[in-house]
Design brief:
Blueprint: E1 7-14, E2 19-26, H1 43-60, E3 65-66, H2 67-76, H3 78-82, H4 87-99, E4 103-105, E5 112-115, H5 117-124, H6 129-152, H7 165-173, H8 188-200, H9 222-228, H10 237-253, H11 258-265, H12 269-290, H13 300-315, H14 330-338, H15 352-357, H16 362-376
Antiparallel strand pairs: 1-2, 3-5, 4-5
Helix pairs in contact: 1-4, 1-5, 5-6, 5-12, 7-10, 7-12, 10-13, 12-13
Length: 377
Amino acid sequence: MIDRRDHRWAVRFSPESGHYRHSVTCLLRPRLLPSRNDISSDRHQHATPKVATAVLGYIAGRDTTDVNELVAFLDRTYSGICSAISRPDLFAAMRALESDKLIYQIENSRATYAATKLGRAASFAGLSAETGGMFGVFLRAMIGLSQKRREKDPNSKDFLRRLSDLDLISLCLASFETRDSLLPKLKADQITELGQYLELLPPAEKPLMNLWRDPDSAEYPTRRLLSTLRFRDNAEGILWNLLQTGVMLREHSNGRQVHDLISKYGGYEGDFEGRLKPTVIWLSNSLAQICTGAKCYNLDFIAIKAYDLMRNLSVGGNLGKLLAIDGLGMKSINKLTGAGVRRFEDLMTIGPEALLAMGLRKQQVDLIRRATIRHGR
């Protein structure tokens, strides 16, 4: 018996017989239930994260929600219609969301819940519940480590203040939306080269994660960071893959062309431009929203860095700073790059006449000149 909810009818002409034939083509598959490839696996391991994201979206869109409403909501979903979602899946998802501080139970209620600021920010940004929870755990872990360090040394610097662009990129790459897009496992010579690259970075650009890349470190063990980022496989090689893929994106944000990056690090231009890069840009924007005080954590200095990173990745260079200026956009930046200008610092040496010759309007030239003067200060 064919279930029309999971398939669609199609009519095709058969040249061999000269007749039209009816056929059935798969249209949609339930997303909250395990796929066919998961049948032999533990059902809850695969179902709970998907159910948790759906439940978080429902709760975040309302002031409060009780369990009966959630049950009714899940029963109305396509997955619920195709095959009832088990109550153990729902309750496991609720426990995971509470543990990650994405939702909380209303005081003095038996089964009424509301979304936390983190839960709302993550859901409205389109993140999965797993990634939203991981971002929150990472930020809280850095806050906790900073407090412990200040107890020992009151003059020690806040860990979160030390986050570099490479840290933010690596955090985005650790998300459950991108971790399957990391570069392949590094060979020994590649690890050595990457270690040298990290050591030669200027202090302000050296990643904080650099502290955790030594598995023998007593103060910053690799397993602590991997646990915070929720890698189930605690092989230290994962951190090297994170940093290597992050370096690739960082170099692109500083102006290095995609074909150069592919020739050095491997991969495919289509995957980089069509999948990895836009996903990290979106995740940078989502992280910035979570760090905005008006929405969630009072970490606006990280939000500013994340927005700058997002703009630079968008244009493939630090000319992305211009996107923050009203009156300048991608067309203006394309005119600059078409004329060979790749770095924001180069604008400080170019006169107004040269900028006009590139096709920019006088108003845009004035905006660029004011921006370079502010930067020079």
